[in-house]
Amino acid sequence: MDLVAPGWIPVERHASAAAEDLRGYLAEVPLGRMGVPEDVAATVSFLASDAAGFLNGERITVNGGHTIG
After folding, report:
1. Using an 8 Å Cβ cutoff, are 35 and 23 in contact?
2. Which of 4, 6, 14, 54 has the least CB density, counted as fewest CB within 10 Å?
3. Which of 69, 67, 63 is nearest to 10 (CA)?
């Protein structure tokens, strides 16, 4: 079983987040942009495909590199 761990994707769940918090998070993302739901969907699609048939037990973080450190 694999796991997809999204970073801060600006969807309804984060609608009440303060603009200052959003800017602070974005400043720490090496790719320089917020993720979009399609970024997460592409990862899930890959994991569901035959191309990921030999993966097992992986945690894939979809956050533009936010946790690199």
Report:
1. no
2. 54
3. 63
This prediction's pTM: 0.86
45 token code pair: 């699609």
Residue-wise DSSP of 38-58 = HHHHHHHHHHHSGGGTT--S-
Burial of 64 from C-beta contacts in 10 A (0-12 / 13-18 / 19+) = buried
Find the mean pLDDT for residues 13-38: 93
| Cα gap 36→58, rounded to integer Å | 21
Burial (CB < 10 A; 0-12, 13-18, 19+), residue 63, is buried
Cα distance from N-terminal residue to C-terminal residue, the chain:
26
Q: Provide the Cα torsion 44, 49, 53, 56; round to 10°.
A: 10
